[in-house]
């Protein structure tokens, strides 16, 4: 029984609880007010009674005075027979009536007192009657009865009786009054104690009310607030300790449910994200692997026995099974489903909206592949869409029991399908790009090989032509005419030029074709070798050569650096300007982040428009008669680019040109090897 | 001992080159006779004295083989590797005379047992110089064991 009120209270709504608590606290206040009112009322009544009593007293005394006056007047008249003594008597008689009347009026409500008043009146009237008889007798000279009356003291006695009656009347009134006063004092005391009791009671009830309020309202609200805050900070409260069944309890249950839902959604989203990542990995198995993973993961996302990835084949208007989960994969992969037999999937494809069917058995279509062939009980189909139209669908097929796909399930499936669609499109793109890249690369290789083979094949005939011409020149010199000799010389020269060119082409083609060893190379040594090779030319033209004192070691193939510098130096010497002594400078610009080597001449220079073109094969500028094949700078660029370096030319036409190039420093060797690997592999 | 000079075996598929090389040897006054064959297989036939060369004399083992690399049927490298497997043929000096300027080809030739590598010059006078040098060095100065 002790628990029940508490249980009943906790089952009340918060509104009722508050009303109840307020009511309980208000109760003593109301009591106190009632008590006060009662006391006030009593006091007012007592006051009224007192007033009346005083008035009655006054009236009684007035009556008494009048009676005494009549007595005195009567006596005076009797003794003197002088009529003027009767004046006060008459005046008293006149005043007596209204005084008695007022007295009666005053006590009209109290029958006992009224009775007494009437008795007093009767006595007074009897007394006055007697007096009038005696006065009349005196006027007629009959003194004897009057004297007897006076002597007998009968009048005095009557007067005394009246006085006594009046006194008694007053006495009764006084008693009533004192009773009344005692009662008022009592209730005033009660009011005092009552007020104190009410204060104490109010304190008690206030304490009780605040306890109840705290326990049933503020504490649950604080708990809810805390739970909300903790959830906001992503730490979850399993259950919120608010056990009541009121609004707060319901709020707590709702919050718990909400938290559970939200955390479930978060978990699902996280899982989805992880799966999305997993699915979109393009492995060595390419698109097929991606499709297979999608089918498997889709099954786990929605806990479905069978999941199909169906890709719409636009060209022939049917489905291709891209992948299926579990054992179905091997038997279904690549097979075809007919459009009419998969109307739900087709609907998802054309509308671009998920299609859910709870009970496949209830569908009227005679032929439903997914029901009849795979034993699907329910079906959820979501479209796979890229930026444009859907290109396929994901079919979720529970095969054991029917299933109602909730809103959230459908949304989850669609989100997964969106991830899957991106993964599929990426994998397709990747495969296409790879195939194209491979095709392009092999075709390029083929072309390069073809060019090299052709050059190689051309070299033999050119050489033979030159050799035969030289043989003819040798054997038949002088025996033919001068013109024939000249032509033979030309044939030989052209043949040799052709050979030289072909050799250059082959050299260019060879750069980077086979892996070369990268080693620390001192450019100073290579420059020395290069200059030695050109020594004759330098001496003949008395070229002023200037080489920097020190070079940092470079990380490259020694032969490559030789080819670069050799070509640049020969180029510089070749295009010397007429009319001034040729100069050649080989130096270095050490400016972060790269080290730039340069070869400078004071030759004819290069026009701005040609500064890119000179690095193309066979682009020989300037004097056509200058020797060379026009492939030297192309070789330079190909080598520099092999090391991911840069080569460029700065020139003022007529004043000379400077070719700059960068190669990796020895310290950067590791970085280059990685790059080299990519180029040569 | 005025022994009969042993022949020089020229292995060359191009008829123009064959004739030029032969002529160059003649112009260079190399006394050794020049035998020409057009590919590696024929060279092997000659060396082993089979087929067309079954009647080759025992003493006509070449003093030096002048070998082109790029040939149909059997190229120079193939012949070189075959020669190295045959003890009686492995010691014949081989001079590779080729158009190829690729280091890779030269390296492979030496690895397979070539004794010298020369680039075809593109000038008959230079060719004569080369054949003269071959004749003088490989046929007269260079020594190989008599019995093998």
Protein architecture, described:
The complex is a heterodimer of chains A (681) and B (148). With 681 residues, chain A is α+β, with helices and mostly antiparallel strands. Chain A has three domains: 3-215, Four Helix Bundle (Hemerythrin (Met), subunit A) (Up-down Bundle); 282-436, GAF domain (Beta-Lactamase), CATH 3.30.450.40; 514-680, 2-Layer Sandwich (Heat Shock Protein 90), CATH 3.30.565.10. Chain A is built from 18 helices and 13 strands. In chain A, strand 1 and strand 2 form a beta hairpin. Chain A is elongated, with a radius of gyration of 67 Å. Chain B is of the alpha/beta class and 148 residues long. Chain B has one domain: Rossmann fold. Chain B is built from six helices and five strands. In chain B, strand 1 (8-11), helix 1 (15-27) and strand 2 (34-37) form a beta-alpha-beta unit. The radius of gyration of chain B is 14 Å and the shape is globular. The model of chain B has no long low-confidence stretch (mean pLDDT 88). The chains are: A alpha+beta (681), B alpha/beta (148). Chain A binds chain B through residues 456, 459-460, 462-464, 466-468, 470-471, 474, 492, 495-496, 499, 503, 506-507, 510, 514, and chain B through 14, 16-17, 20, 23, 70, 99-102, 104, 120-125, 127.
Helices and strands, with pairings:
The complex is a heterodimer of chains A (681) and B (148).
Chain A: H1 3-11, H2 14-80, H3 86-106, H4 111-139, H5 144-152, H6 154-232, H7 247-280, H8 286-302, E1 306-313, E2 318-324, H9 328-332, E3 336-337, H10 343-351, E4 355-357, H11 369-372, E5 379-385, E6 390-397, H12 407-476, H13 482-510, E7 519-521, H14 523-533, H15 535-540, E8 544-547, E9 554-556, H16 558-574, E10 583-591, E11 594-601, H17 632-642, E12 647-652, E13 656-662, H18 669-680
Parallel strand pairs in A: 8-10
Antiparallel strand pairs in A: 1-2, 1-6, 2-3, 4-5, 5-6, 7-9, 10-11, 11-13, 12-13
Helix pairs in contact in A: 2-3, 2-4, 2-6, 3-4, 4-6, 6-7, 7-8, 7-12, 8-12, 12-13, 14-16, 16-17
Chain B: E1 8-11, H1 15-27, E2 34-37, H2 40-48, E3 64-67, H3 76-85, H4 87-90, E4 94-98, H5 103-111, E5 116-119, H6 124-141
Parallel strand pairs in B: 1-2, 1-3, 3-4, 4-5
Helix pairs in contact in B: 1-6, 2-3
